[in-house]
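Reopening this one. Same input as before:
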Amino acid sequence: MLKGKTAIVTGGTRGIGLAIVKKYLENGANVALAGSRKESVDKALQQLSGYEGRVIGIWPDLCDPEAVAKAFAEVKERFGKVDILANNAGISSRTSLYDYTLDEFSKIMDLNVKAVFVCSQAAARIMKEQGGGVIINTSSMVGEYGQPSGCGYPTSKFAVNGLTRSLARELAKDQIRVNAVSPGVTRTDMVAALPQELVDRISAGIPLGRVGEPVDIANAYLYLASDSASYVTGVILRVDGAAMV
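Same output, byte for byte:
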């Protein structure tokens, strides 16, 4: 579905991000896997044997426009173009408002919102020159419903939704589609560490009867990146088993 295309995936070293990287590689894309540290990037690349020459690692500060522009330019130089940007990097917290520090709130907003803006801007500049592209952002079900603690995370995802819809309208004239995927509870490292009894209780509240797997989210990323979604832009695609909070 993505043969001959080049993708950049931020937060691509584990969980949903690594599943997206694998799904893109399986479908013919060249991929630049972005992580926060060289060590984590190298560890992820070791899990991708068989794709040598089609996957590389980068680790720019995603909130630094110059660092991101340089890294993305290197990806373009290596593979010839940048067709897809998957803005997946993010952090969460469950801190109570009464204990929230401004520093903690700022860190969440920086990586979850500012980095999405910085990376989207850098990618869009490349995509405009080459005649189009696709940007896909990772939102969350709490970006629609909120959550009972850790207000910074749902606030950041509300912002991602607004940025997604706005950029979709702004960049359409340049043939750049912008969408978001909104996962529900997904079996990432955090969920995998929970007691099975708790996971069963969570699953019981989801109409499909199970938590999501990273590949479920990656499949949505594949569809939105592909030509099958050529008329889809400005969409926040829920992948949550019809869960309600």
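So the earlier flakiness isn't reproducible anymore. For the record, The first helix runs from residue 15 to 26.
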